[in-house]
Write a structure and sequence with these properties.
alpha+beta; outer membrane lipoprotein receptor (LolB), chain A; 13-stranded antiparallel beta sheet; 9 helices; 15 strands; globular
Length: 318
């Protein structure tokens, strides 16, 4: 066999091996945002079942925990009710110092109610109010709400970009960055289980540099969540709500960071729709003065009802 023939045979063998092995890149690397959204919608239910659901009510027990910056736990209840793009999200706890949260969107305006005995918003409430794209875009509550934007992309028109496959707490997920049509300072990411395409987490991150001119003063001075629980009363170590004073703000030399995570799990099928029945909120603040607080809310959607004809007063912003 001459040299030319051997060379051609070697090229043939290499080409055959490459054809059998297939491309070196993974399935996840070839995905497009529209592919993920389509598979996500299919994981919920048929197009007919999704379009038939015009309103939704989720309610169940809720627990509030202070993880960093204090200690304590409160038990209460959580309610999330939605109709189209309208939403009310509420958590109630039996404490004078921290009564819970109430967020309302009437399709135009956002309201975040006071949650403390001092008639001020909590740090979480102030963050959501200051960064209201979380509510206006229908992101809060995920598909537990009919307002969730992936259910109506034609109306929302966000910019979606696929950021690749990640591993979070041992789970492989697909990372989809969400940019609202109206600009926001938030960095928003939606995560989907790499196998089932179910939506398992949303994260909102915000970084504020010292001296930034576009900082919302309310957010800059937002109080931390109460620190300790004593005899059923939520209190800070000094006996009152921990606040970030003007002196502290002016003395900051470090970047301030906020991060809100929503986690979804325990999926069950109701009325032809597969929805999460476990919902957790995880909120952390790393303030420029070095103080860090981390809090968590755990809500069990024990009762999920579709097409419940909600009272219009649920969505009134006064």
């Amino acid at each position: 066999m001459n040299r030319g023939t051997m060379h051609r045979m070697m090229l043939f063998v290499i080409a055959l091996a490459l054809a059998v092995a297939g491309p070196s890149f993974s399935r996840a690397e070839t995905l497009k945002p529209e592919d993920i959204v389509a598979k996500y919608l299919g994981s919920i239910g048929s197009a007919q079942a999704r379009s038939a659901s015009k309103s939704r009510l989720n309610q169940g027990p809720a627990t509030f925990k202070i993880l960093v910056g204090g200690a304590g736990t409160l038990d209460g209840k959580g309610v999330l009710i939605s109709e189209g793009h309208k939403l009310q999200f509420m958590m109630k706890f039996l404490s004078n110092d921290y009564r819970g949260e109430q967020v309302i969107f009437d399709g135009n305006k956002v309201k975040v109610a006071a949650s403390t005995s001092a008639q001020s918003r909590s740090a979480l409430g102030e963050f959501v109010f200051s960064q209201d794209a979380i509510v206006r875009e229908g992101l809060l509550g995920g598909e537990l709400s009919t307002a969730f934007p992936l259910l109506d992309l034609e109306d929302r028109k966000p910019k979606l970009s696929y950021e690749g496959e990640k591993t979070i707490d041992g789970q492989k997920v697909l990372d989809l960055r969400y940019k609202p049509k109206k600009s926001t300072d938030l960095d928003i990411h939606l995560y989907f289980d790499a196998e089932t395409y179910r939506h398992v987490m949303t994260t909102y991150s915000l970084r504020l540099r010292p001296g930034m001119g576009n900082v919302d003063p309310q957010l800059s001075n937002a109080g931390a969540m109460p620190g300790d629980v004593a005899s059923g009363t939520l209190m800070s170590p000094t006996g009152g709500l921990v606040t970030d004073t003007n002196e502290t703000v002016s003395a900051r030399q470090q970047e301030t960071r906020y991060r809100l995570e929503e986690r979804f799990g325990d999926f069950k099928t109701v009325d032809g729709l597969t929805l999460p029945t476990s919902y957790k909120l995880h909120f952390s603040q790393e303030l420029g003065n070095g103080k860090t607080t981390v809090n968590e809310w755990d809500i069990s959607a024990g009762q999920v009802s579709n097409n419940i004809n909600p009272d219009p007063r649920n969505f009134e912003v006064r």
